[in-house]
Design brief:
six-stranded mixed β-sheet; mainly beta; elongated
Length: 878
């Protein structure tokens, strides 16, 4: 039985309508002492406990217990329980149980359980001595004489096991004064809080030093105990939307000369105070989600005068993470310029993480699990602090800039910008130490928005872009409403249009061709009709998202069919974890260069692969490292088979590999002969993504050995990773002022930065050349020059007029060489112009035939060349 359905309302005025209107008797004899009326799932432990507080024995026989059902204006007794002829000694209790077999210390069982219920909604219990009501308990909110809840306390049982209503004071006939929701103890003394400690007067010395409450450990040893404190308010956050209290600190920032203890504490009270007030507070020490505080505050008094508590200067990085606990609840200031490094929760909770410079994700620069990894991670953690806004509300309006001013489009920030002079109170909440600001900070713009991508050169530009769940089917992974989708679509189109790629690999687009068609239509509307097209693949794999290609037909032409790598091609590539890879060969329109682009989206680090024996090992690579590594190895082997049949070894791997560049999947691609283009052109500290305040690149461009020397540049356009997501398209949870921060531009179009690669892609087909000469024989050999005319025919698959030049004109017997020629003449062959030669009709010294060779070279615009020759002979005789 569920006694919330048995006994939750007021027996006060409501019950008085149903019970005989006898004058109340003094209720200091037999009283209701404890009740449990709402156990979850079962009601085997529900009970009602009566107590004899008369000072002498009481015969229970005249008493009855009445269960009352109804609400204000209409209560009725639906069950009367007769008590037996038992003498109850002074101070003893009598326990009535719903099921004696399952509840200890029962004196009377009222099974079956259904006897307790009446219409599913009983409201309270009354105790009568004959016709006289001597005590009653009401617990739902009805009011009226003789027993009421009063105001400010709802005595609803929470349903927690072992919890109920216990009498914790003298019987005053006011329920909320007499009873508390406590741990229940049938047949034993009630677990009541101790009486309030004396409050005293300001400065009388009765208070406990705050450092004695905080102690030297992570939690207070005084938890659950009443304490009286006195100190200076160093931060007031009790107002509407605030933290629900204020911070108090002793005037001396190290009152006990123990660096391990804090001199400040949070007071969970809405009492009106001002920073600088000296206050005296009585309450109970508690640990609220690991924050030590004074809660259940029973009295706050502002003392005469005011004071200033000293502020502790903190320099990052701290020497140890344990340095923060001794400062909890105290006023702190950071004298250095700190970098805004994390802002993922800025839109929702107005939180940012500040650090000493930008912090690299360890596995982006050092090997996972290495000593260097551990050291860098520790250094990162010691070199950061969270900056909060002193509010507990979500999506607060207005949003507050890290410098304390209002965040709007005229006063934004980006990752990498700095704030100096951060000052506030060090708090601990939601698992992080954080500063609740009490003064403005100084903001400096360091990382200016890039208006356009860094040039990458070359004759063809290839990009990859994570489009953050571009779904035309609404209320799925992407936009939830038509307005959200239009905002998302506009931003993504603006970004791709500015990049202007010949080929763009898309990641996280809905797994159909409709979403891809919609995006391409939008690109064409924003540029010119037919400017973009896409590779039709239909559904790829089983995920809701896939990878895809869009391209500009005027710049490149698809060659052959696309190819897909999934589990059916190579079992190492688990396509229920990784999205299938997509390869397509393209030929450039102007130079005929052929290359194969491969777009990828490997398994994320965020969810586990325990079902395939690939857990997070704690080395920094995250979940599914083996799954991604096997996929990378399969990718290398697959591409070596020329899956698109291109006949060309120029391959560009693109996409979100969910791996930083020192992790195993990237090592596998490098071992397969691929070059990491981002590291090559942007250096070790390149980034495309921010996670937990640390930067690195998950979005890659890797070139095969055949393609590497054709790459002219590679970059990542920082339009997303550095931008707070309060500026994105999403309207979920945002208030109107936050929604209005949206701009129809490329910034924060996604959470990943796009990758852009420049290629000098040219055809590798050499031009053809034919050479003939007239005459091709000289007679007679009279030592005189004859004019020889050459005819050259050169053709190329792209160039209408490839470059042709005379490479050489030589004799098989050079003049003036020892024993060569006849010793009398020089310059037996002379180049007059590109197709005219003067050739001497000269025999060699042995009077054998002389042969002159004229060689031409033809070169196309891609540097491919061919040679051809023709000969002129001087015969011995005719």
């Amino acid at each position: 039985m569920n006694l919330r359905t048995l006994l939750p309302v007021v027996v006060g005025a409501a019950a008085a309508l149903a019970l005989p209107a006898a004058a109340p008797a003094a209720s200091n004899t037999l009283v209701i002492n404890e009740i449990d009326y709402d156990q979850p799932s079962t009601d085997t432990a529900e009970f009602l406990e009566l107590a004899n507080v008369s000072g002498g024995a009481i015969d229970l026989d005249p008493y009855t217990v009445q269960l009352v059902n109804g609400n204000a204006g209409g209560a009725a007794v639906y069950r009367t329980i007769e008590l037996p002829a038992v003498s109850l000694a002074a101070g003893d209790v009598y326990v009535i149980c719903a099921n004696a077999a399952n509840t200890a210390n029962c004196d009377q069982d009222v099974a079956p359980d259904t006897d307790w219920a009446q219409n599913g909604a009983p409201d309270g219990v009354g105790l009568r001595n004959g016709p006289t009501l001597v005590d009653a308990l009401s617990y739902e909110g009805n009011t009226g004489a003789p027993y009421t809840e009063g105001s400010g306390l709802g005595l609803e049982d929470t349903g927690a096991v072992g919890e109920g209503l216990s009498r914790c004071g003298a019987d005053t006939d006011v329920n909320n004064a007499d009873f508390s929701l406590r741990a229940i103890t049938p047949g034993a003394a009630n677990t009541c809080p101790p009486p309030p400690i004396p409050f005293g007067a300001c400065g009388d010395g009765l208070e406990t030093p705050i450092h004695a409450i905080q102690g030297s450990g992570a939690a207070s040893s005084a938890t659950g105990e009443q304490r009286l404190i006195e100190g200076v308010v160093v931060g007031d956050f009790a107002g509407a939307g605030g933290l629900g209290g204020f911070f108090v600190q002793e005037e001396d920032a190290d009152a006990d000369d123990d660096p391990r203890t804090s001199e400040g504490v949070f007071v969970a009270s809405g009492q009106a105070v001002d920073t600088g007030d000296v206050v005296r507070v009585r309450g109970t020490v508690a640990e609220s989600f690991a924050r030590t505080q004074i809660g259940t505050v029973t009295r706050v008094e502002v003392c005469p005068g005011d004071a200033t508590a000293s502020t502790t200067t903190v320099q990052l990085p701290v020497s140890s993470m344990t340095d923060w606990e001794p400062l909890e609840g105290m006023a702190v200031t950071f004298p250095q310029d700190l970098t805004i490094s994390e802002y993922f929760d800025f839109d929702r909770f107005n939180e940012t993480v500040l650090s000493v410079g930008r912090q690299m994700t360890p596995t982006a620069v050092v090997e996972p699990g290495s000593a260097a990894y551990t050291a860098l991670l520790d250094q990162n953690l010691r070199g950061r602090i969270m900056l909060d806004d002193g509010r507990n509300t979500e999506n607060s309006d207005p949003a507050i800039h890290p410098d304390g001013a209002v965040f709007d489009l005229s006063h934004r920030f980006r990752g990498g910008d700095t704030v100096g002079g951060v000052t506030g109170v060090l708090d601990f909440a939601f698992g992080d130490y954080r500063v609740q600001p009490t003064a403005a900070a100084e903001y400096t713009e360091v990382n200016e928005r890039p208006a356009e991508p860094e040039p990458v050169g070359g004759n063809v530009k290839v990009a990859s872009f994570n489009v953050l769940n571009y779904f035309t089917t609404l209320d799925g992974r992407g936009a939830n409403t038509p307005e959200e989708f239009e905002r998302q679509r506009t931003k993504i189109i603006a970004a791709i249009t500015e990049i202007d790629p010949a080929v763009v690999g898309l990641i996280e687009i809905q797994n159909n061709d409709e979403a891809l068609q919609d995006l391409v239509d939008g690109l064409n509307d924003a540029t010119s009709p037919g400017r973009y097209d896409f590779i039709e693949t239909g559904v790829i794999g089983t995920d809701e998202i896939k990878v895809a290609f869009a391209y500009q037909p005027a710049r490149v032409t698809p060659v052959g069919d696309h190819a897909i790598l999934d589990s059916s091609v190579d079992p190492r590539f688990i396509d229920t974890k990784n999205r299938p890879a997509l390869a397509q060969t393209f030929r450039t329109a102007d130079t005929g260069g052929v290359f194969t682009a491969v777009i990828n989206h490997l398994k994320s680090k965020g969810s586990d692969c325990d079902d395939v024996g690939d857990p997070d090992t704690g080395d920094g690579a995250g979940n599914c490292n083996l799954t991604r590594t096997a996929a990378a190895e399969a990718l290398v082997d697959w591409l070596a088979t020329d899956p698109t049949g291109s006949g060309d070894d120029d391959v560009l791997i693109l996409g979100d590999l969910n791996s930083y560049d020192k992790e195993d999947p990237i090592d596998a691609l490098l071992a397969g002969g691929y070059t990491d283009l981002i590291r090559e052109f942007q250096g070790e500290n390149a980034y495309s993504y921010v996670f937990d305040g640390m930067i690195g690149y998950l979005d890659h461009g890797l070139a095969s050995e055949g393609l590497a020397d054709e790459v002219t540049g590679a970059t990542e356009w920082h339009i997303n990773a550095d931008e707070p997501d309060i500026l994105d398209y999403d309207m979920t949870f945002k208030q109107p002022a936050q929604e209005a921060l949206y701009e129809p531009n490329a910034y924060r179009s996604s959470d990943h930065d796009p990758v852009i690669v420049g290629l000098d892609a040219c055809d590798e087909i050499a031009p053809e050349i034919e050479v003939s000469v007239t005459p091709d024989s000289l007679w007679p050999p009279n030592h005189k020059y004859r004019t020889v005319q050459a005819t050259v025919t050169a053709t190329d698959n792209l160039d209408e007029e490839p470059d042709v030049r005379v490479l050489s004109a030589t004799s098989n017997e050079p003049d003036n060489a020892p024993g060569g020629g006849d010793g009398d003449t020089t310059n037996d062959i002379v180049v007059v112009d590109e197709d005219t030669f003067q050739v001497r009709a000269e025999r060699d010294e042995n009077r054998s035939g002389r042969v002159y060779t004229i060689t031409y070279e033809v070169t196309d615009s891609c540097g491919n060349s061919s040679t051809a020759s023709a000969t002129v002979g001087v015969p011995v005789r005719r």
